[in-house]
UniProtKB/TrEMBL annotation:
<keyword id="KW-0238">DNA-binding</keyword>
<dbReference type="Pfam" id="PF04237">
    <property type="entry name" value="YjbR"/>
</dbReference>
<dbReference type="InterPro" id="IPR007351">
    <property type="entry name" value="YjbR"/>
</dbReference>
<dbReference type="InterPro" id="IPR038056">
    <property type="entry name" value="YjbR-like_sf"/>
</dbReference>
<dbReference type="InterPro" id="IPR058532">
    <property type="entry name" value="YjbR/MT2646/Rv2570-like"/>
</dbReference>
<protein>
    <submittedName>
        <fullName>MmcQ/YjbR family DNA-binding protein</fullName>
    </submittedName>
</protein>
<dbReference type="GO" id="GO:0003677">
    <property type="term" value="F:DNA binding"/>
</dbReference>
Amino acid sequence: MNIEELREYCLSKIAVSEGFPFDEETLVFKVLDKMFLLTNITGELQMNVKCDPEKAIELREMYSSVLPGYHMNKKYWNTVVIDGSVSDRQLEQWIDDSYDQVVAKMTKKKQNELMNLK
């Protein structure tokens, strides 16, 4: 997966926007203004994704390319180095999980708003 494929996959999800709220190199994807993925647009491709705390630890133990979330709450976020050691399908699953984790924490009103956009 490259940066364009990552971007296209994220933007294919419902109610997703992108932006550079921190600096000119960190691309952030949000669902209804809640962040679910960050990635760098320069250097080695990596992404930060939200994860269930127990699963986050499990993934770090299973994959050398999965690390505690860089500059994030390491309990809930993983940094994934996208170096070809993990399949695109697995990366997409982690993106889906991150998106779902963020949606699950939204208010019922926001969740209903999202459902109405489908």
